[in-house]
Amino acid sequence: MTAIATNTLESINPATGEVVGTVPLTPADEISAIVSKATVAQHDWNALGLEGRLRLMRPIADRLIEVAPEIGRLITSEMGKSTPEAQGEATYGASKFESELVSAFEAFQPEEMADEHTRSILYRDALGVSAAITPWNFPMLMPQQCILPSLMAGNCVIFKPSEETPLVGQAYADVLNEFLPEGVLQIVHGADDQGKALVASDINLVAFTGSREVGAKILTACGPDLKRVVLELGGKDALIVLEDADIDAAASFAVQNSFRNSGQVCVSTERIYVEDSIADDFENLVVEKTKEWKQGDPTDETVKIGPMVSSMQRDIVLAQLKQALKDGAVLRCGGETKDNYIEPTVLTGCSHDMQIMHDETFGPICCIQRFTGDEEAVALANETPYGLGGAVYGETQHAMNVARQLTPGMVGINKGCGGSEGTPWVGACQSGYGYHSGRDGHRQFTQVRVVSIPIHEMKPNY
Q1: Which of 121, 127, 349, 441 sits at 20 to 30 Å (Cα–Cα) from 230?
Q2: pLDDT confidence of residue 3
Q3: The whole model's pTM is what?
Q4: 72 and 97 share a domain?
């Protein structure tokens, strides 16, 4: 949670209400000068070339590994993520820094193409100055996914972490700035005013992760100048449990992916569709497994689920829950709340007449609806403007056949939606505009230029 004073942004622990720390609020009218500084620094940064930037940035990986436990503790303090999950995020991000750096380095190498008349070289050049506007739910990983490839491409970066987790953002930027030249990575702290000023400034790219509504506003604001935009937006991910699924495995996944990080994950399972013939057994297993989740102080390493990030987010989730119960959903377990905590909650008897099956919840509510036949399951899962992730549990080929009829950018078969090493993180429909990560995602942070050389004299073929 945060509180904004005149010149200061306070970070407040959502589990205790205590102030974790403060950062100076960036005056919105200073952002233009910050961007100008980045524009000047970008000339020399780009001139280093890919090899020079790789050499300079590679030592960051070891330094991140050193400070990962400290950043993990900060994640728990700032946004309430359980200790195992927070330490996992920080350690994973640090361990992946070098391999992602090399992946970006390889993705940006020139490519040669030729035919009988012409040899062409495709270069992937820097765009200039990019803005990274990142969320609070993964306050180290999400910034890294936007900042690392942009820097490797030769861009300078203005980083605005979420106002809910400014201390994690500052700690991450501080580590990188131990190695980067001045002006290459700068940080801006604040909320809406700072974000709007940054988007309106003389930048070349905006990489944003957050809500669909804010993403649409950024896209509109960037339209007049045709700025490059990469948006990872919200989701309403569906899990389909087919008649031939391993019910125990499906129930375990449903619980884990509904409640991890208190349901505050862009690819949380927010809708579950289960074949009617196995629904009783599946629902009972989900309730049984949910009751095993320990909730409490997120600094306790035995706790699996902490508080919501803020009272505002808690209230949004509770309003959806209250309306769902009013509309006829059956409360099977959970539903209680205290301070910023919401118990892991399972609802059955859900239907598409309920708003909770359409609006992004971003909280620990597991909603289950029954279906009969694959055709109905596909229709229900696709009845959404969102399209980030999804999962299908069932016999592999059967599940594959169903998955290929779904509209999200990423679908997992008997697993979560994340792909293998090197695949991009892709949102479809209104969950994404562009994409990031992997070779293809890294290339979103560059401008392609083609230089062509004649192999021999030729006449125009017209």
Answers
A1: 121
A2: 61
A3: 0.96
A4: yes
